[in-house]
């Protein structure tokens, strides 16, 4: 589904990604771990199409199609979803209206009619229940005054509504207490299927107890320095990142 | 004065007019040399040969101008065509409240007492354009709401310019008196129906007695050859609440002079504005709040979106007298420039003579938040719509306080249209 080849990216002339290779197939869950500043979030932003980053080498392909020069919204229409580490507050636009706009713009891009209002409302209700979201929450301004946990839950709610092929969860566990973490992980797990893939970006192993990955990759200094199965996450939890940094330095 | 021959004017009004005329003759039109007119030039307007009174009476069919009314709901209407009252398009009342005409209020004995107490009492005697209006005005809305009363429905004051004159100058004059514990909702609109140039120099005096509530909405969406100078003076007494919303989406040149005088305690004065301009449009929002007594509040929140070659001015003056302790004055002016050629001049002017007050002001001029734009795009919303949605959201909190739902829907649609998008929903 997603093929990243020798990806180099920089921002304001500063090199952040220095040759990432990654292949994610349908049905798989990949975890990307690594210390702060290693390039995890940059990788997520580059896949989602953020223009601040310049891809200097290599490529990102989605279902065989090179995404170079593809806008963030076109990537979304192709099924890529990014759950933000720091979701943006947008006062004046309610969660419901935001979702209506997002869904209908995606449908428009695919040549489909607007979703009928009753179908939309039913869908919103179902997905809100899945994530234990109160109805009152849906009429509030997007992310404005939301707690950290509410913001993250709202991200996964949007994901549930948009049903992406590839979901990238950037530090979805940060700022969550254990109950919120369970709800969010449960939501993600319910949305897993054989034709979808997930990339979980996290600093800690904690989230991976709930969203169990098929593969774990460790990024350090803009490169994947180690890949393995889910046991690699446990090893990292045990030993920290220092041994990998030393290993990479050799 | 010559035109007074066709209306029977009281001697006292005649004197007021003569004094005003004298002031205007001395001062003339304000020039850019004056601090308050630094960014707004009336030079080009002075070259136009405006006719002050139309040669003939003009009529309009309701179906042709229906869209300019808030026709979704029932309203009282005070309608003028080229400055002359149209009884055909109006719906006035004397049922417990007076919602009628300035010309009859100025001439009929039954209104004399109110006119003597209120007419030209809060309007500036010094401001040349206000004087010009005082000298020449003979028509406008007269609204008197007695103690504890509230009209059954909102009042629309609409001025149409038919374009039958090559260029027309209008001098509407409104007097609104809201007595103790009474309440009022007004929607005011100036609409030119052709490309012929119009200059409207309007003066409105509003008196809000103890605990009165006034909700006033100015819809300024006139066409590209219409100019409006709006001079509004508000006198507030104890515990009164006056809110003025200015929605400025059209016109060639618009100057809003809002002047609040707080003559009592526990008063709340609120000014909100949404400005969305393009082309070569120009708007100048000049506000004044004079806190003259303790324990009062004022709130100002103006949002502006300026595109193409449009220019904007916000000048917010707050005066807090020495006696006006515990004043809480808030002023905010946020602007987004969506073109390299658009300009905004934003200037807070605080003159505070009391020591125990809370005064805050903030002004921002910027572009749209790129991170927010990216966030919306990752959800599949195309860049153009995402930009519009953000601008919409930016202006939206000003709409939250619009208390007539149908008006709010209308304004929402106007904003969406102005931003060139169909968002598919009303916020």
From TrEMBL, chain A:
<keyword id="KW-0547">Nucleotide-binding</keyword>
<protein>
    <recommendedName>
        <fullName>ABC transporter domain-containing protein</fullName>
    </recommendedName>
</protein>
<dbReference type="InterPro" id="IPR010230">
    <property type="entry name" value="FeS-cluster_ATPase_SufC"/>
</dbReference>
<dbReference type="InterPro" id="IPR027417">
    <property type="entry name" value="P-loop_NTPase"/>
</dbReference>
<feature type="domain" description="ABC transporter">
    <location>
        <begin position="2"/>
        <end position="246"/>
    </location>
</feature>
<dbReference type="Pfam" id="PF00005">
    <property type="entry name" value="ABC_tran"/>
</dbReference>
<dbReference type="GO" id="GO:0005524">
    <property type="term" value="F:ATP binding"/>
</dbReference>
<dbReference type="GO" id="GO:0016887">
    <property type="term" value="F:ATP hydrolysis activity"/>
</dbReference>
<keyword id="KW-0067">ATP-binding</keyword>
<dbReference type="InterPro" id="IPR003593">
    <property type="entry name" value="AAA+_ATPase"/>
</dbReference>
<dbReference type="InterPro" id="IPR003439">
    <property type="entry name" value="ABC_transporter-like_ATP-bd"/>
</dbReference>
Automatic annotation (TrEMBL), chain B:
<dbReference type="InterPro" id="IPR055346">
    <property type="entry name" value="Fe-S_cluster_assembly_SufBD"/>
</dbReference>
<dbReference type="InterPro" id="IPR037284">
    <property type="entry name" value="SUF_FeS_clus_asmbl_SufBD_sf"/>
</dbReference>
<dbReference type="Pfam" id="PF01458">
    <property type="entry name" value="SUFBD_core"/>
</dbReference>
<dbReference type="InterPro" id="IPR000825">
    <property type="entry name" value="SUF_FeS_clus_asmbl_SufBD_core"/>
</dbReference>
<dbReference type="InterPro" id="IPR045595">
    <property type="entry name" value="SufBD_N"/>
</dbReference>
<dbReference type="GO" id="GO:0016226">
    <property type="term" value="P:iron-sulfur cluster assembly"/>
</dbReference>
<feature type="domain" description="SUF system FeS cluster assembly SufBD N-terminal">
    <location>
        <begin position="12"/>
        <end position="157"/>
    </location>
</feature>
<dbReference type="Pfam" id="PF19295">
    <property type="entry name" value="SufBD_N"/>
</dbReference>
<dbReference type="InterPro" id="IPR011542">
    <property type="entry name" value="SUF_FeS_clus_asmbl_SufD"/>
</dbReference>
<feature type="domain" description="SUF system FeS cluster assembly SufBD core">
    <location>
        <begin position="164"/>
        <end position="394"/>
    </location>
</feature>
<protein>
    <recommendedName>
        <fullName>Fe-S cluster assembly protein SufD</fullName>
    </recommendedName>
</protein>
């Amino acid at each position: 589904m997603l093929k990243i080849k020798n990806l180099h990216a920089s921002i304001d002339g500063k090199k952040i990604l220095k040759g990432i290779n990654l292949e994610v197939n349908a049905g798989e869950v990949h975890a990307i771990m690594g210390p702060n500043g290693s390039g995890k979030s940059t990788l997520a932003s580059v896949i989602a199409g953020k223009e601040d980053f310049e891809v200097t080498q290599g490529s990102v392909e989605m279902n065989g199609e090179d995404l170079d020069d593809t806008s963030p919204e076109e990537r979304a229409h192709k099924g890529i979803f990014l759950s933000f580490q720091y979701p943006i507050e947008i006062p004046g636009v309610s969660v419901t209206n935001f979702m209506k706009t997002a869904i209908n713009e995606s449908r428009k891009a695919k040549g489909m009619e607007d979703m009928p209002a009753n179908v939309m409302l039913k869908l919103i209700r179902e997905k809100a229940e899945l994530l234990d979201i109160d109805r009152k929450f849906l009429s509030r301004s997007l992310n404005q005054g939301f707690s950290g946990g509410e913001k993250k839950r709202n991200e996964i709610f949007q994901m549930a509504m948009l049903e992406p092929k590839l979901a990238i969860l950037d530090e979805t566990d940060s700022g969550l207490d254990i109950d919120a973490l369970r709800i969010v992980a449960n939501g993600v797990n319910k949305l897993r299927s054989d034709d979808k893939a997930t990339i979980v970006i996290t600093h800690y192993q904690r989230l991976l107890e709930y969203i169990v990955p098929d593969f774990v990759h460790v990024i350090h200094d803009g490169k994947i320095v180690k890949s393995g199965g889910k046991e690699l996450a446990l090893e990292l939890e045990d030993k920290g990142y220092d041994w990998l940094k030393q290993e990479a330095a050799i | 004065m010559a035109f007074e021959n066709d209306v029977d004017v009281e001697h006292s009004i005649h004197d007021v007019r003569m004094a005003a005329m004298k002031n205007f003759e001395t001062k003339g039109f304000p020039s850019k040399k004056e601090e308050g007119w630094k960014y707004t030039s009336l030079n080009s307007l002075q070259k136009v040969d405006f006719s002050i009174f139309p040669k003939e009476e003009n009529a309009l069919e309701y179906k042709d101008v229906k869209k300019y009314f808030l026709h979704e709901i029932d309203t009282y209407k005070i309608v003028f065509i080229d400055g002359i009252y149209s009884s055909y398009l109006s719906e006035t009342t004397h049922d417990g409240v007076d919602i009628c005409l300035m010309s009859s209020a100025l001439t009929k004995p039954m209104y004399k007492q109110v006119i003597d107490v209120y007419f030209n009492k809060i309007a500036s005697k010094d401001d040349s354009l206000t004087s010009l209006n005082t000298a020449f005005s003979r028509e406008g809305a007269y609204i008197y709401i007695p103690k504890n009363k509230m009209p059954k429905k909102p009042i629309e004051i609409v001025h149409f310019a038919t374009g039958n004159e090559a260029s027309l100058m209008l001098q509407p004059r409104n007097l609104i008196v809201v007595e103790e514990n009474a309440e009022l909702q007004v929607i005011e609109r100036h609409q030119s129906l052709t490309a012929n140039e119009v200059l409207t120099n309007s003066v409105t005096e509003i008196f809000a007695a103890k605990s009165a509530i006034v909700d006033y909405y100015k819809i300024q969406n006139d066409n590209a050859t219409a100019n409006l100078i709006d001079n509004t003076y508000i006198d507030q007494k104890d515990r009164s609440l006056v809110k003025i919303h200015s929605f400025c989406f059209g016109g060639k040149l618009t100057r809003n002079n809002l002047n609040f005088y707080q003559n009592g305690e526990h008063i709340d004065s609120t000014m909100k504005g949404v400005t969305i301009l393009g082309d070569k449009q120009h708007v100048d929002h000049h506000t004044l709040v004079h806190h003259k007594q303790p324990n009062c509040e004022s709130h100002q929140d103006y949002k502006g979106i300026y595109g193409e070659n449009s220019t904007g001015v916000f000048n917010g003056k707050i005066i807090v007298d020495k006696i006006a302790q515990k004043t809480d004055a808030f002023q905010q002016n946020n602007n987004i420039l969506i073109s390299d050629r658009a300009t905004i001049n934003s200037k807070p002017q605080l003159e505070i003579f009391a020591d125990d007050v809370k005064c805050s002001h903030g002004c921002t001029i910027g572009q749209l938040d790129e991170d927010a734009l990216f966030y919306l795009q990752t959800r599949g919303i195309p860049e153009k719509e995402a930009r519009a949605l953000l601008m919409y959201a930016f202006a939206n909190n000003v709409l939250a306080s619009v208390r007539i739902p149908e008006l709010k829907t209308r304004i929402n649609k106007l904003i969406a249209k102005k931003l060139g998008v169909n968002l598919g929903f009303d916020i």
